[in-house]
Amino acid sequence: IFVPIYLYKLGYSLTDIFGMQVIWAAIRPPLSYMAAKSVAIFGPKHTMVLASIVQIVYLATLMSMQSAQWPLALLAVLGSLSYTLFNIAIQVDFSKVKHTEHGGKELGFLTIFERFGAAVGPLVGGAIATFVFPQATIFIAIVVMALSLVPLFLTAEPTRTNQFITLKGFPWKRHKHDFIAATFFGVENVVSIVVWPLFISIVLFTSNTYAIVGLLTSVGTAMALLTFYLIGKLIDDKKGGLLLKVGVFVNSIMHILRIFVTTPIQALLVSIVNEPVTASYRMP
Asked: Which of 16, 185, 233, 235 has the most CB atoms in a 10 Å sphere around its CB?
């Protein structure tokens, strides 16, 4: 959430920032295939390590943007590669270790811990970026990423390594609806993570931007922590399909309401409601 704001404050135009997002998304298809091959050959945990290393390089590049003037295209490729490697690896890992009857609750706990980090991160990072300087937040993120590699190998790889993947025989027709849904999921993701924080930082919170945007994100996430476990239970109770439809509908209404946000209180209310609503369709 801080990267677009950081780049905007460095003097990059909105066109530049959104152009970077286009490159980020456009390069995902070939990177996804590379990530899948990495999981097959090295295993998901080793792929997560690779993702973390690339993420550290991405953050170091971001930290030196002001002095080195790296092209935004390079930043987009590094960020997209790190995200793709980690995202595919953790999904494969979870699919192999989850319990077949309690996968929803296990996903709920996984989401709780992930969102706890997402609540603490913006709050602490926003305060540091505001009262120290933004590069200090990036440096701390690099340290945290390096430390995150330690617990990965307390257990073995959940899959066999040195495997091969092929696209031949892939059931394209069976997944056509998934592809359509994933396309719009991507649009919604960019609006929530890139456009919305950038919008409120430019229009509503022109001073102490990092701290306030971080606070809004953290409050919204913290308020939703309890709902993740309940959503997981509903998924295990075979109500995931209904939950997905209701979550998508309510989230659509939320996006319409964002257009009319003009005050900090309204932005706070949107942030509080957004997290559980988003989880209610993403988790299923």
From this structure: 235
